[in-house]
Amino acid sequence: MVFQPENMYNCVMKKCKNVFTAFSRIFFLIFLISCFGCRSVPQKNAGLIPSDFFADGSALFLAQDYFPYEQIAPGIEYKKVVISELSQIYHVTKIDLSLVDPVFDPPGSCNEEKVLSEFTLNFARRTGSTVAINTTPYGCKSSWDRISPFETYFTSSGIIQLGNEVLCSPWPNYAQLSFFEDGRGKIYKSQQICAERGHLFSLGGFYLILNDGKPCGTFKPFQDARTAAGLSEDGRFLFVLSAEGGQQTSCKGVSFSESALILQHAGAWTALEFDGGDSSALVVNGKNVFSYVIFSKSAVNLGFIPR
Predict the structure, then answer these.
(1) pTM of the model
(2) Where does the chain have alpha helices with state H?
(3) How far apart are CA 146 and CA 71, in angstroms?
(4) Of the candidates 193, 225, 250, 210, which has an alpha carbon nearest to the alpha carbon of residue 43?
(5) What does residue 80 show for φ and ψ, rounded to 5 degrees?
(6) Are 115 and 153 in contact (CB under 8 A)?
(7) How far is it, in rounded angstroms, from Cα 86 to Cα 262?
(8) Nearest-angstrom CA–CA distance, 49 and 66
């Protein structure tokens, strides 16, 4: 039988149509998950927060006192703060570094400032981390790279140092978080290669937002999903702020300055911002605890495992 050009054309068009239909269904499914897989309106506070808190603007950071910590593992406490009057949801995780090991385990090699990206949820499950967060900001070629199920490499926008090995170069204008063998952490205002004894690893972030127990820096009051981390004065306790926000939820998110106030009230002495927006992620006991699905991968994830 001779295959006619018209038949070939119809065959090709039919296959293209099937491929297009399949991709359309996939993206429609993703859209449904993003719309209906999240709680768009924060739950009511059931009268927990006094009404006079809302008069002077202090409710955002003082409200956390009305939501008790839950111990999810030895040395790790977690709370979810819901402020319906302000359309805010944020999470605070308190970690005792003398009892918990920080985990930095990239899924692939870092080469020429490039790092293999990974979903925070996948990282947490792969490493067995009780808690996992996104950290270092990054650059990528396209939005597709951020959500692609295939291997994609991001360009790190901050230092990544493992022991004495510098995997990605420091950005002096940004801050960094470092961990040490003696069960403490340290935040540097300016990224630098860490040469201190007992250094485990260092991860770059954005700006320092809390210094010597006081908010620092001048930032625009732009609210969005945020990931930030602070340390107690002795470096033993790490406080992680994970604020919900963005297009998938009605939660407003918080600004850099508001992040500082929340962490200050939680007990932090110094603090820095990590990557935020769509990159913000928090996984607790193998589950995403945000009220919406996280579609974006991260350049660098950080986990914590009780000893």
Answers:
(1) 0.84
(2) 5-36, 59-62, 120-127, 143-147, 256-266
(3) 33
(4) 250
(5) -115, 125
(6) yes
(7) 15
(8) 7
